[in-house]
Amino acid sequence: MSTDTLVMPPSTKPIESLDEVTVRFAGDSGDGMQLAGMQFTNSTVIFGNDISTFPDYPAEIRAPAGTLAGVSGFQVNFSSHEVHTPGDAVHTLIAFNPAALKANIADVRQGGIVIANEDSFGKTDLKKAGYEVNPLEDGTLSGKYQLYRVPIGKLTGNALKDSGLGAKDIDRCKNFFALGLVYWLYGRPMETTLKWIDEKFGKNPQVCEANKTVLKSGYFYGETCEIFPSSYKVPKAKLPAGKYRRISGNEAAALGCIAAAQIAGKDLFYASYPITPASDILHTLAKYKNFRVKTFQAEDEIAAMASAIGGAFAGDIAVTGTSGPGLALKGEGIGLAVMTELPVVIIDVQRGGPSTGLPTKTEQADLLQAVLGRNGECPLCVIAASSPSDCFHAAIEAVRIATKFMVPVILLTDGYIANGEEPWLLPDIKSLPKIEIKHPTGGNGHPFHPYERNEMLARPWAIPGTKGLEHRIGGLEKQDITGNVSYDPENHERMIHLRAKKVATIAQDIPLQTVMGPEKGDLLVIGWGGTAGAIRSAVERVQAQGHKVAAAHLRYMNPFPRNLGEILKNYKKVLVPELNMGQLRMLLRANFLVDAIGYNKIKGKPFLIAELEMKIQELLATFLETSQG
Amino acid sequence: MAIEALPQLTPKDFASDQDIRWCPGCGDYSILAQTKKIMPDLGIPREKIVFVSGIGCSSRFPYYMSTYGFHSIHGRAPAVATGVKVANPELSVWVATGDGDGLSIGGNHLVHVIRRNLDIKILLFNNRIYGLTKGQYSPTSELGKKTKSTPMGSVDNPLHPLSIAIGAEGSFVARSMDVNVKHLGEILTRAAHHKGTAFIEIYQNCNVFNDGAWEHVSNRETKDDTTLFLEHGKPMIFGKNRDKGIRLNGKMEPEVVQLGNGIKEDDLLFHDEKAAEPSLAFMLSRMRYPEFPEPMGVLRAVDAPLFEKGVHDQMKAAEAKNGRGTLEQLLNSGDTWVVQ
């Protein structure tokens, strides 16, 4: 349905066409920046651009207003071609206050647009942000950027002066003014947001009307006000045909778990203790109870792990989700799952560490904890997701491996892909992997041996309720085959090797590693997890410059794909960019004796394409010059 | 339609083929024997029974039962049991734990499983000592207790399992003793029939590291005067000659009184295990020798909603409202759009 309010008059101002744009909304954590960013994202994907988003917010729900600590940002990169990251440099920054300006201005490209909410640049505001003089007036910005001072607060107030709302409620609408203005600036349709406002505030007509009024006021302000010389358009992207939805990594992981359970024809048991940035998996799953999903908010991380083990023992697809500190607490339980050889999936949405670290910031520093962080010889399968939508497929793969091999599997994602969003081409159901689970049935009269193994070394998954298969398992060392408690030294060594061999056998069941680019060459850039988009984009740029550079991105962290060692030998140098101190590099060096070079960033932020590109070029220059000279 | 009659099982049918490795003379043998003894009469097929435990002497329990069993890690049995019961509410789930496992390292899980009121049975073997680690004091050891880790005596104030269970809103809270096999069997049976978390503290003697810890309530000569056997609806009378009782004084505190001299049975407290208000049950949980006889039996047995039923009821309600979800629907949930 279309009403006249939705039809925008043709713009009378010049429209410039752009290929790719990055917009960042920044303000206080109470200013509604995440909401504005999400709405902009929704309208943009539905318009038909490819997008990638990056919400960046403080750990405190309401840090002191106006301070740098309280700045919340939401970045959207949208394009007429495919994008793989939320963008390097910001084209348009919407700064709601001096703190937001200060925290974000360095990321704005030269000549980029800065829209500042002039009303929030009073003396006190400036002081809170640590400005001695007003940056809007001292000329520091106007030379480098297109600075637009917009009295967003006042204009919102004017638009709502007859609304009957109080000053506080009016003030809360100002994010919609900014959103409307940016909609105009980039020629976005407002329908999606108007519809959303109706759904969200329908029960409160006054607030509903006010938000709609303010959104449109922002739009028309852009159109009629003389300050902007032009608006911009970013044509639709040529995305593969099909049905899409917008998805974040946490939502995708949740849907992947449900899909895996559906494919396996089993119930999903998800146990979790709230922890940033993993809680959204629990929130999402709790909405899908009609899909045979049981969610359990446990009393702590340890209980979440232990109950998942209990759920797996009883025959459910059992998953627990957490972040780094929680993974540490789950360690003993994961060891129990290794010993009892039960299929449990542990999702670790990595965040900045150590200890409580940076709860809302991204990092890849749990790799070694995942691969090695338990007592005893305790190998397990570790896989990593590379993008928001890839969390869906990675979750299914984790369940597939766990149930096929009767092992716990750790799935690593990170705060960046967990909260980031992208359009997702819905997969064809037929293309999803098969998960076939056969529980043994009793009744053959022979004693049941819970640790007898099949050709993949997997033990039978006999579940309580099955007559004739009553058995006892636990954390004490198991006697081979019978599963009885055993302190026999020979048996212990045999079992250590069996458990290791079983995990190693998974390498026979996973795809070979692929590379993007030449099969042999000067440089291999190898990464894992959420850095995929940035590495791929940077390598593509360097390849376009004529260099023999390839990229390999790992999903399987343990065991590694069986051809990985060969691949590493095909390049003169190996570069390993990671958001940690070099954890994959350590594993590659240890496993393959390769002199891998690290490029490490530990700032709680994802890689920029440009910095990776520069590093690759620098590295190439060092040894190509030498070999040529 | 013919219904296949369940074969009548005997206690022996519940014994596993594993050698029992508790020390000779350990109180655990009696608890195991009584558990095996009551099992046949419950009418639950062996394959539907799961024993879960943590770490400690008591936690070896599942290995000695021929049911399904899970010997998990220290303190976590209630959490593992929660997963089992939520995954399959039709299973009869039992937890064997001890004073260290259940109240120290696993105290958190114990409190939460009780307040959630899952339909599981928790047997807490209280021997007031760490046995498997060879004799350190436990959370129930008395002040001043000299052990390997407290050569000058413990300065740790002990806690009391029944008070914890009642404080955690336990719907069934009881106490029994390893040496009183008849009573133990009765209490285990009652726990089994309770719908909800049944918590039983079992006084258990560790004859190696803490022998005689319960002598004051188990000694044949004195036990009638040091224990109070609770019966629902009956006055609280105890003593060799059944001539002593418990009543509330003017300050609403319990006191021991001698019957006679104008004090009649009607003046005593009458036990009401079904009282919705748990204050009297809590008061009973705090009565200790030598000031008081120690209560034995069911302190509290009330109806309360089951956690696992709540979980499954919500799933059913969601299905009734939206239909059983399919993969197709899953992928099409949320706002979708089509690119031509």
Provide a short characterization of the protein structure.
The complex is a heterodimer of chains A (629) and B (340). By secondary structure, chain A is α/β, with parallel strands linked by helices.
Helix content of chain A: 25-40%
Question: Major sheet of chain B, described briefly?
Answer: 8 strands, mixed
- How would you sum up the global shape of chain A? globular
Based on the coordinates given, report the CATH architecture of the largest domain in chain A. Answer: 3-Layer(aba) Sandwich
Strand content of chain B: 15-25%
- Structural class, from helix and strand content of chain B? alpha/beta
Name the biggest interface. Answer: A-B, 77 and 65 residues
Oligomer: heterodimer
Tell me the name of the CATH homologous superfamily of the largest domain in chain A. Pyruvate-ferredoxin oxidoreductase, PFOR, domain III
Q: CATH superfamily name of the largest domain in chain B?
A: Thiamin diphosphate (ThDP)-binding fold, Pyr/PP domains
Rg of chain A (CA only):
27 Å
Spans of at least 5 consecutive residues with low confidence of chain B: none
CATH topology descriptor of the largest domain in chain B: Rossmann fold
Major sheet characteristics of chain A: 7 strands, mixed
Count of separate DSSP helical elements of chain A = 20
Number of strands of chain B: 14
Query: Mean pLDDT of chain B, nearest integer?
Result: 96
Count of helix runs of chain B? 11
Content-based structural category of chain A: alpha/beta
What is the CATH-assigned architecture of the largest domain in chain B?
A: 3-Layer(aba) Sandwich
